[in-house]
Amino acid sequence: MVFTTPVLNYAQLSPILIVLAGAVIGVLIEAFAPRNARHNSQMFISLFSLVSALAATVSIRKQAGVDAAMNSVAFDGAAFLIQATILIIAVLAVFLIADQENFTALAAAIPGSQEERESLQKDLRVTEVYPLTLFAVAGMLLFPIATDLITLFVALEVLSLPLYLMAGLSRRRRLMSQEAALKYFLLGAFSSAFFLFGIAYLYGYSGTITLSGIQQSIVGGSGNDVFLLLGIAFLSVGLLFKVGAVPFHAWSPDVYQGAPTAITGFMAAATKVAAFGAILRIFYVSFANAEWQWRPALVIVAIITMLFGSVVAITQRDVKRMLAYSSIAHAGFLLAGVIALNKSGLDASIFYLFAYGIATLGAFAIVTLIRDAAGEVTDLNRWSGLGKRSPLTASVFALFLLTFAGIPLTSGFIGKFSIFSAAYQSGSTAILITGVLSSAIAAFFYIRVIVLMFFKDPVEDGTSVVLPSALTAIAIAIAAVVTIVLGIFPAPLLSFIESTAFFIR
Amino acid sequence: MNVLTLLGLLPLLGALLVSVIPNDHVIRIKQAALATTLLVALSTILMWFNFDTANTSYQFVQVANWIPSFGINYAVGVDGLSLVLILLSVLLTPIVVLAGWNESEGGRWSAKVFYILILVLETMMIGVFAATDVFLFYVFFEAMLIPVYFLIGGYGSGERAAAAVKFLLYSLFGGLLMLASIIGLFVISSKNGGATFDITKLSEMHNYMSSTTQNLLFLGFFIAFAIKAPVWPLHTWLPDAAASATPGTSVLLLGVLDKVGTFGMIRFCLSLFPDASKTFTPIILVFAVISIVYGAFLAIGARDIKRLIAYTSISHFGFITMGIFAMTTQGHSGATLYMFNHGFSTAALFLVAGWMISRRKSSTIADFGGLQRVTPVMAWSFFIAGMSSLALPGLSSFVSEFLVLVGTFTRYPVAAVIATFGIVLAALYILIPVQKALHGPTTPGNENLADLNLREKIAIGPVLAVIIALGFYPAPLLNVINPASAHVIESQGFSDPLPSEGAGK
Q: Is B67 part of the contact surface with chain A (CB cutoff 8 Å)?
């Protein structure tokens, strides 16, 4: 047996490597640095490594190749755009995470135990969340650029495992948070198993695990189509689970509600970008020639997802659950971009992911500000009259809701327009019509929140808007500015995406 | 800089000015708002005199790239139709500001917010009529909902929040259907000669559509406009909105915003989908005639004075829709003139009704009585406005209603004959409240009502003057309207059944 030395293109891997290095340093800090120095140094390391990774990915944006790591990682225009989006979202998420109020004092302590009380008295703060975030980000960076199924699976696990943990770190209502974490973990493990199954079938079908190899088998048409179908189906289950598409969405409302809000924001925005980055690559590169096998099914999933998310969101009384269902609906809209299967679908999806990710983070950032003595207030009834108490906060939240609803002059509208027109271009009239209808339904519950905030009288139960810390304020401001600017002047970003986004095969 | 762009920016600048005036200088805020709107009105009148009536193409055109990836331009220009409607908007706005001098009191928010909303709305009203790019039109069409929503919900009376939401949801639903059609148009245009939203280029596109596609796209636009206009059976939001909004907001809502619906029918439905328009004409005429009669019956039964005016408007919008879909030059000219006249007669009705209500603290018609003796000026103003609403010869509405009926009769005699009964009913629904509220013995509690003060007289004076002047001499408007109407009819291959003499000249 002959061993070949692996050849790695370090430049193209540099964003991932930088983030991983930051994560490892973070772990070392946890181990060796004195407790009171940890927070600031962790925050510095996280931001520094994320920003350098962003710089790295920008500097290599013109490169393209499938041989970054022995044909199992590719780097191309789409990879650059997705990675940059993830990193920008991650930086903003770290801003939110740095507001340590939301996190448990001692993650390992059993809820309600003596140990927990002591840790609270000592005013301990967890800082493990920083390296965990970085590990998750590294996985997310790898996920959309992996070109063989094993690397894809590894990336999926690297991004998922830290998220499971992070979901359980809530400072208040810890049982609920831990339940969410466990639920996420169990269902996630289940979906990973499906994903592996799919890999096995696809290997059985084509005799290879590389995306381009599978594509060639499909073009050749010599394999057993049953294996191909099963493979695509099982692989899709794993992927659709991550983006929270119906019927694999059951985890998301509970996890969104239970996780610390900063983490929810990070998860909702960044995971979606990474997972859709991977879905786009897999379906555009590998399965494009088998579109008749998967497209009808995916159209149905997209339609159900859009309608279900929009309809069920109407009944929610908790702002985080409502945002969870709204993100399910948005997963449906994004699937329209996958179904489009053309260049404009790719461009539209990337624009949508960027716009939606930033706005989502902004919305969750606002949620962290509405508090009473016991922590964040997520019961929507208690948000009534927010517009009177704190017009600015309420207006900015209304802005994010309007962009989710896709009202013109916000980034969400441009995103919706481009993604639906791409879907219609490829002949999916059904997607266009359901998309528009579910947007109308969705508008109902977004507007209900606006009514609540502006047209109802405030409740006097101690709910108040805390002044955001500088970092949270910056994150919210950036999100709001991006939302408006992309709504009014989307042309530069759209044409940049149009000229940059492509998949190397 | 382009005249139209400048005109659109002026109110925004005014809004900016208002926003820097401190909150406690309410008088200054009102003066600034009034000055801005007067300036806009004067500039528009100047523009009116520079408009070349013989030229049927768009004038004062400006085109600039906005989102080149989708072929979207910032494109503005006016023809006779849009010029008349812009004139209507900018004339009504200062009147509304002056007449509703104290409307902002009793609102949820400060006077400053009220006037900022009004000014922003004025920009959007100018924009929506001036846009010659379908996408730009859609942006204004949707964005203008937001200020109106806050004007109704924040400053109205009664169930204002519910009415605002109903208004917004109806309009959003229609808007989203239109968005689906716009996406359809976009995709068709990009397959036939390059993506564009230019209204002139898009009016060629019907040659490339199957009749099913054309019918569907037509419906998307038409339903949106029929909700806006509103045409039976999509009218149910209007009475609630009009009853809850402040009189000034109602004037803008019924006088201008609803005209966007009928304007859109001419500009978009007829020009973009001539064949589908012909297909649907019989059904639409039925709906229009039902609106005329049904609105009139509702008005006869109305007890609330604001609702009464809203119902009469439904009847009038039936006339306008009928005139449009009669597809004759007279019908069109009549409909366009009707839009202008209805704006003024409704404004007069609503403003006087608003003063009556604020003095009597009740909007029930039965609470008034014998106003003619107590408050002669107010009573006479209401009387003239009412007579204009029932199209008394010598007042402006008569000319337009006559033109619509003549224009319709030449092609659809049955519809015209039934609609004529609407005039008889109009006499009932106006004369009954006039009799109840103005004549007869003074109802107890009304003896000490104050008559109109100087500000109110100055506000209502010009409105009544326009109503009377245009009743005797409509030529200035018709000279602008007629060529535009003839152009629409000819350019889309409709022909007048009888040789047209250039009606009204």
A: yes
Q: Which chain B residue is nearest to residue A403, measuring alpha carbons? A: B143
Asked if B187's CB is within 8 angstroms of A424's CB, the reply is yes
Q: For residue B505, what pLDDT band results from cuts at 50, 70 and 90?
A: very low
Tokens 């609330």 locate to: B304
Tell me which of B113, B179, B188, B209 to substitute to probe the interface with A (most A C-beta atoms closer than 10 Å): B179
Q: Which residue of A has its CA nearest to B110?
A: A388
Query: What pLDDT digit, counting tens, does each position of A287-343 carry?
Result: 888 888 888 899 999 999 999 999 998 888 888 999 999 999 999 999 999 998 888
With 80 as the cut, is the pLDDT of residue A125 above it? no
Number of DSSP helices (H) and strands (E) in chain A, helices first: 21, 3
Long-range CB contact pairs, B17-20, < 8 A, 24+: B18/B112, B18/B115, B18/B116, B18/B119, B19/B112, B19/B116
Contact, A222 vs A190, CB < 8 A? no
Helices first, then strands: H and E counts in chain B: 22, 2
Percent of chain B scoring above 70 in pLDDT:
97
Is the alpha carbon torsion for B13, B17, B18, B19 positive or negative?
positive
| A485: chain B residues, CB-CB within 8 Å | none
The pLDDT value recorded for residue A448 is 85
Assess contact for A357 and A89: CB atoms under 8 A: yes
> Which of B66, B70, B153 comes nearest A454 by C-beta?
B153
Whether the pLDDT of residue B504 is over 50: the answer is no
How far apart, in whole angstroms, are the C-alpha atoms of residue A307 and residue A329? 7
Beta bridge mates, A370: A465
Q: Provide DSSP, A297-316.
A: HHHHHHHHHHHHHHHHHTT-
In this complex, how many residue pairs, one in chain A and one in chain B, have their CB atoms less than 8 Å apart? 84
Q: Which of B81, B140, B103 is nearest to B333 (CA)?
A: B81
By the 8 A CB rule, do A435 and A382 touch? no
The position carrying tokens 């009769």 is B409
Element (H, E) at B65: strand B59-67
Residue recorded with tokens 């709001």: A480
Within 13 Å, how many C-alpha atoms sit on residue A340's CB side? Answer: 26
Q: In sequence order, what DSSP letters do the residues of B360-382 get, joined into one string?
A: HT--BGGG---HHHH-HHHHHHH
Render B227-245 in DSSP notation, one character per residue: HHTT-TTS-THHHHHHHHS
Which residues in chain B have Cβ-Cβ distances shorter than 8 Å to A447? 165, 168-169, 172
Residue-wise pLDDT for A401-420, tens only, equals 999 988 888 999 999 999 99
Q: Band of the pLDDT at B503, cuts 50, 70, 90?
A: very low
The three-class DSSP label of residue B334 is helix
Tens of pLDDT along B91-131? 889 988 888 777 777 777 777 888 888 899 999 999 999 99
| Alpha-carbon gap, residue B4 to B173, rounded angstroms | 29
